[in-house]
């Protein structure tokens, strides 16, 4: 079934009325656009700062990744590298969610970044071991 056939089927089910799912999706998109405009107008400082942090983090990861191609990694350094890649993705998602008005979800992702930073610091200072963090040998 093609997309057009499926849309026609939904329209037939709606008996010529609006397709509920399509209307809800359009309303959600319109609401997000309104929130994006409001966030940009009222919280532009957060947006610019968040974008600068993201760009710095991305550039740092790119710089480090070129050096890792020739470096010998210990298990701990390899784990740190993976955690930083995950953290960059998480920060990007949190920043995007904040910009769309999903503040609680954004804060939850940011809290996870803080927990990751604390875990990395504890591992680096040898306060805890990988076995302590994961509950078994990594």
Describe the model:
- This protein is mainly α and 138 residues long.
- Helices cover 80% and strands 0% of the residues.
- The chain contains six helices and no strands.
Number of helices: 6
Proportion in β-strands: under 5%
Biggest pleated sheet: none
The first-to-last residue Cα distance is 47 Å
Globally, the shape reads elongated
Mean pLDDT: 82
Spans of at least 5 consecutive residues whose pLDDT stays below 50 are none
Q: What is the element string, with H for helices and E for strands?
A: HHHHHH
Radius of gyration: 22 Å
- Total strands: the figure is 0
Helix fraction, binned, reads over 70%
Structural class: mainly alpha
What's the layout of helices and strands?
Layout: H1 3-13, H2 20-42, H3 44-68, H4 75-99, H5 103-124, H6 130-134
Helix pairs in contact: 3-4, 4-5
What are the salient characteristics of this protein?
138 residues; 6 helices; 80% helix
Describe the structure concisely for a colleague:
With 138 residues, the chain is mostly helical.
């Amino acid at each position: 079934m093609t997309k057009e056939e499926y849309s026609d089927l939904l329209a037939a089910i709606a008996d010529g009325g609006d397709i509920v799912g399509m209307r809800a999706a359009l309303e959600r998109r319109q609401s997000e656009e309104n929130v994006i405009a409001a966030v940009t107008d009222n919280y532009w400082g957060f947006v610019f700062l968040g974008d600068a942090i993201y760009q710095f983090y991305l550039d740092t990861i790119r710089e480090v990744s070129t050096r890792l191609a020739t470096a010998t990694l210990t298990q701990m350094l390899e784990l740190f590298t993976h955690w930083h890649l995950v953290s960059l993705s998480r920060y990007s998602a949190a920043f995007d969610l904040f910009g769309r008005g999903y503040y609680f979800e954004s804060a939850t992702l940011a809290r996870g970044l803080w927990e990751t930073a604390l875990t990395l610091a504890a591992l680096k200072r040898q306060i805890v071991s990988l076995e302590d963090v994961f509950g078994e040998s990594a």
